[in-house]
């Protein structure tokens, strides 16, 4: 099987409206279709969910069913998104402006990327990673920023909000 691209990621969320706003605002997304809202959907027992489109894929956000909370703290469960190196400062500024705690940028030992780590409102662990075209540019950016490493034997732990 050869994959073409990521179509969407489905997350169970505790507050659909809050999460739609988060993904729309953080990722400059567009709110798309919603299901499970009208009488026909309710009669068909369709789950309430809304798609937020970002670039060429979407976040499909499903309202949590009572008694079945999101399981966001599973070890190593996270979602990473590639950004341009020139956008690292923009991501930091946006997260600060929105009051979203984050950690980074952190370097990856043996790699060529700097990452910023943050959580969504339900605790899903998200990573914005910028990959540099060559090792010299990567090392120069680490020195310029005073970035620390999150890889190479140092188990990275997301900071809880």
Annotation keywords:
single chain, 161 residues, alpha/beta, 2,3-Dihydroxybiphenyl 1,2-Dioxygenase, domain 1, five-stranded mixed sheet, four-stranded mixed sheet, 4 helices, 23% helix, elongated, disordered C terminus
Overview of the molecule:
The longest helix is centred in the first third of the chain and has 11 residues, at 16-26. The chain is 23% helix and 32% strand. The chain folds into two domains: 8-63, 2,3-Dihydroxybiphenyl 1,2-Dioxygenase, domain 1 (Roll), CATH 3.10.180.10; 79-149, 2,3-Dihydroxybiphenyl 1,2-Dioxygenase, domain 1, CATH 3.10.180.10. The strands form two sheets. Strands 5-8-7-6-9 form a five-stranded mixed sheet, with helices on one face. The chain is an alpha/beta fold. The model is unreliable at 151-161 (pLDDT under 50). Strand 6 (102-107) and strand 7 form a beta hairpin. It has helices spanning 16-26, 39-43, 88-97, 135-145, and strands at residues 8-13, 30-35, 49-54, 57-63, 79-83, 102-107, 113-119, 125-131, 148-149. The termini are far apart.
